[in-house]
Amino acid sequence: KAGVTQTPRYLIKTRGQQVTLSCSPISGHRSVSWYQQTPGQGLQFLFEYFSETQRNKGNFPGRFSGRQFSNSRSEMNVSTLELGDSALYLCASSLAASGGLVYNEQFFGPGTRLTVL
Amino acid sequence: GNSVTQMEGPVTLSEEAFLTINCTYTATGYPSLFWYVQYPGEGLQLLLKATKADDKGSNKGFEATYRKETTSFHLEKGSVQVSDSAVYFCALSGGAGSYQLTFGKGTKLSVIP
């Protein structure tokens, strides 16, 4: 089974621009989460989607948004980029539930490294 | 809120040495606990997990036991290899139906021949 894929792997943008990152979960996984990783703040939760609905959101400004499509693929968008948005953005997918059982382990993609100049 | 505290590195060990990375947590309810590993330039890989008290997760020679009484989930390996050099993250999710992971700061492990 193919793993979580993220595109693009690297991005360079300038302040004020906006960016869209894409994530394809493992086939059959319905939950997709996004995390930001920086040297200073570590790994921080951005949001989680399930069946096209945002179920949970971390403590990030409204410039960070996301969505999930009917095929479980997800995108996140960052508008009006700031220097501090430079980070590795990680997507993770989870089976969530099957046969009445909950599967909450998350499987991560390789990440998109965003550099804001 | 939930939080995870793990020993900060870097940790440098000789090959075949014993490894312990301490992890303690604060959470309400009954969280699931995880260890993830990140190799340079890559995303996170799930190393092992435990979903209830006294569960022991194990994989590739690594082990960790969910200790509710001490709110700990320490990672151990009896004999490390150079290929184990990576950053290790302890994490928790808030129980059934929760998919938000709270991570520790990570511990960088270097194993020298």
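The interface with chain B takes residues 4, 31, 33, 35, 42-43, 45, 48, 50, 55-56, 58, 90, 92, 94, 96, 102, 104-111 of chain A (CB under 8 Å).
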